[in-house]
Structures are given as C-alpha cells and as structure tokens.
Amino acid sequence: MPAQVSESLILRTYPFKEADLIVSFFTRDQGKMRGVANRARKPKSGFGAGLERLSHTNLSYFEKENRELVRIDRSELIEAHFSSPSYEVSVALDFFAEVTELLLPPHEVNERYFRLLLAVMEDLKHCDPHSMWKAIGYFSFWAVRLQGFLPHIDLSEQSRAIALAFLSTPVGGLAGEGWTKTTAQDLRRPLIRLIEEHTERRLITAQFLEAL
C-alpha cells in the first residue's frame, strides 16, 4: 500500500519501546490520528524538528485496516513554530495542543479548526507575551463553537462589546483594539470550564494560564 501524505500539526508525542515515539497529530484532510515513528528518539533518526509540538509538517504514513496506529515514515517540516518561545507563549501553545488533543474525536475532518490553529499560532509570532491574550481568548471561543457547543457567557458590558467585535472577525483574521488581559480572562474562564466538561480530564495548562 502506498504511503499517504497529509498536511499535519503535531499535537503530542509519547515514548514507546526503546527508541520509538507514539505521535498524536491533526491532519487537514483526515482529522486527528495517532501513529508510531520508529527510531524517532535516536539522534540520527531523520525526523528532526518534524515531530516537535505544533510543528506544521507534511506527514507521510502507512495505514493498515483494523490498525489503530499508523506507521509514520517521515515528516517534512513546513514550519517550526517557536523553537525557543518565552514561557508565556510556550504555555499558550501547550494549551492549544492539549485542548485539541482532548477535544477532537479521531478521524473527524475539521478543516476550519485546522485553520484556527494556524491563525492563532501566526498571531503569537507577531506579539509580545503580554499581548497573547487575544489569541488565547480567540482560540477558546472558536474551539468550543466549532465543536458545536457554546454556553451563555456572562461578561462585563465593556468586555462583551470588545469580545463581540473581535470574535466576529473571520477565522484567520486576528485584529482588534482594546483586547487586554482582563478582557481575555473575562471570556476564557467560562470557555475553559466548558472545554473541561467535554474532555476526559481537567486541562493541565489551564492553571498555568490563570497564573500568568
């Protein structure tokens, strides 16, 4: 069977056996998948940064019927996001990856969610750590909305006006004035609680976000 190639974002990796990795990745055309990368932990494996968290890659893999895990052949890097980010940005990236890993079901194509991840990561590249809250709030809102559930959100009048103006922009366009840490906290707290209700466990990174 020929190898399949999918544009992918790496979500998480787990050590497996002596030198392998189990890789959870989100593809544009096949949804979320998991596979084994043989010898990926060896210094000369050839995968390089292609399996780092939220790396944007063209992933080549072999899939067999009735097998949960695919066999990952290679990962051609399109873009490596934040090889040495600040602590704040690193926590935000971990939050994006963790929510995606726990929230999305396997093999469910969600191209708009894929574009959402690319958009918020691109926005983080062009802002300082203190301006990252708009990307976090934007991601939290669209993550729950694209999955089909959204609660009534209690916001202050000022935060509601800013949030509605900002979040009404199309996915992929991150702009808006007046988006402060207080505004983002006012919005993301109920959204994070809702995300936690739809995942198997509480979000590890949520407590770190609250501490920033």
Notes on the structure:
- The protein is an alpha+beta fold and 212 residues long.
- The chain folds into two domains: 4-79, OB fold (Dihydrolipoamide Acetyltransferase, E2P) (Beta Barrel), CATH 2.40.50.140; 87-211.
- 38% of the residues lie in helices and 21% in strands.
- The chain has helices spanning 87-103, 111-125, 133-146, 157-167, 181-197, 206-211, and strands at 4-16, 20-27, 31-37, 56-62, 70-79.
- The chain is elongated, with a radius of gyration of 18 Å.
- The mean pLDDT is 82.
Summarize the structure.
This protein is α+β, with helices and mostly antiparallel strands and 212 residues long. The chain folds into two domains: 4-79, OB fold (Dihydrolipoamide Acetyltransferase, E2P) (Beta Barrel); 87-211. The protein contains six helices and five strands, in the order βββββαααααα.
- Over the alpha carbons, how many angstroms does the gyration radius reach? 18 Å
Strand segment count: 5
Q: Biggest sheet: strands side by side, in what order?
A: 1-2-3-5-4
Mean of residue pLDDT? 82
Q: Residue ranges: pLDDT <50 for 5 or more in a row?
A: none
Structural class: alpha+beta
- The figure for the number of domains is 2
Strand percentage: 15-25%
Along the chain, the helix and strand elements come as EEEEEHHHHHH
- Helical residues, percent: 25-40%
Distance between the termini: 48 Å
Number of helices: 6
What is the makeup of the main sheet? 5 strands, mixed, barrel
